[in-house]
Amino acid sequence: xxxxxxxxxxxxxxxxxxxxxxxxxxxxxxxxxxxxxxxxxxxxxxxxxxxxxxxxxxxxxxxxxxxxxxxxxxxxxxxxxxxxxxxxxxxxxxxxxxxxxxxxxxxxxxxxxxxxxxxxxxxxxxxxxxxxxxxxxxxxxxxxxxxxxxxxxxxxxxxxxxxxxxxxxxxxxxxxxxxxxxxxxxxxxxxxxxxxxxxxxxxxxxxxxxxxxxxxxxxxxxxxxxxxxxxxxxxxxxxxxxxxxxxxxxxxxxxxxxxxxxxxxxxxxxxxxxxxxxxxxxxxxxxxxxxxxxxxxxxxxxxxxxxxxxxxxxxxxxxxxxxxxxxxxxxxxxxxxxxxxxxxxxxxxxxxxxxxxxxxxxxxxxxxxxxxxxxxxxxxxxxxxxxxxxxxxxxxxxxxxxxxxxxxxxxxxxxxxxxxxxxxxxxxxxxxxxxxxxxxxxxxxxxxxxxxxxxxxxxxxxxxxxxxxxxxxxxxxxxxxxxxxxxxxxxxxxxxxxxxxxxxxxxxxxxxxxxxxxxxxxxxxxxxxxxxxxxxxxxxxxxxxxxxxxxxxxxxxxxxxxxxxxxxxxxxxxxxxxxxxxx
Length: 583
Description:
By secondary structure, the chain is α/β, with parallel strands linked by helices. The protein has 21 helices and 13 strands.
């Protein structure tokens, strides 16, 4: 049985108290500075602290960071309105409608205390708007908006009153509560600070596209009729390619032909990375129709499923390539974290302020944002996971494409068959959750039957998205190529009904991925790339465990043996980057 409330022995309880006090003091020290006494009407700081911290002197929270965020919110970069073709106009009509949250989450929300409900409502009122980007390319509005990050939420100079924002500390994790206080102070979520490389790169990118600098371009291309991988694999390829655009001073663009142009699936907070989605389509920038650049472009068309040795031989010396336009085609492996061990690259990463802990989150948050309809769904889940009273363990169980194709075969996937994942989750809860936290398990899996069985067995502790999953390349290269040929009708490439079905499946997966990034601890399937991206977006090493899949031989099922209470079970980011899809 999965614990819904952490039950601990005396030694575990002592360990948690040390973690609570040490983590709470450390988090608090980062957030507060000695300042003037709070106004008489402001609540005393002592009422915001857990008993035992021994801090009674009044403090005030500086809103300087919040002011700097607001000042950084400038006019942005203007976009030019494009005269789209008839097919492109039809594609621009695609929208993913925000679905209802699953009944499992509704059940848990109904049980929230008034304090928790208030905190969650504050997060829902501020986070979605503050984390938006702007539509670019085919996804741009008409007329198009200037490209810039969303403005931060209001920054506050004082602590929240008990009936506003995160209120007063009422138990659970003080470290999580301290992060909410920081968010109250700055108007931004933890990890939203601007990287030291961002302003310079934003200027360089726009100047290249506008012809103010010599053209130096790096493009990530996922062509139709060619395998590029699922969402996780593609995001590793995109992020790694973008990193090398930064390192070599190149403007960056993304071109997807399958399942839908990238700019219809994501927004941008900083730069216009939109591209023509096929030959003959309308260019978003004149530079992409420069025939000299097109004819002399270097295509890296062997970058799908490259070996580790080939990656390690090519990318450290990538800067020697001086071609004005380089196209990285269908790359589905990550080299972002591997680059920290390249002697030629590591000093550059350090100089730009990149660290292994936050490289992926920094790059992805700068480059893309989910569409508003996705954010509305994602924050319904992450606002619950963020509550100090809740400890959420994300469980990602990859069973295989066969079970997505065949409901009959999928019946084999049950909680019993994958019991080692749930046993690991139980051990994690008893080891890392605070005594007063309610433990919840966010399950994402490609098996519909396993999802149903877990909800049936653990109705009060397992939460799911309720979204149907679809691997965008489940049929393999032959099916994608056949569909591509069948869809061609004159100059039209897309069957819009098929596009909508594929894109909806992709957006479902994206919503689950981003929600998973909000969990406190992650248990991932080894030899699967899907769970790594949200783990790295979260940017908190030391809270991830990899679990092997079940093996079956002659009808006998064997499960990997792993004690998830041990520190040795924790996977480092470097270890995650050494296996399946790399990193």
